[in-house]
Amino acid sequence: MSKVTNLAGQPVLCQILSFLPREIVDVCVKEHNSDHYYKTLTTYKQLVFMLYGVVTRCHSLNSLCKNLLFLEDKL
Length: 75
What we know:
This protein is mainly alpha-helical.
């Protein structure tokens, strides 16, 4: 019995993002013009941060920000 090893060793967040092609996000961004006035946080980065909050079970934006600040040197 062979194992599927193409996702082995990847963090859960990377596995989730691999199912969502970047091109789909780019098409939606262009269609809704959501990156028109951004300064530092693009729509894709916000999507990644929100998915991270779901995976780590953050219940508020405050707890998400604390988690991200804790991991600041690793990001």
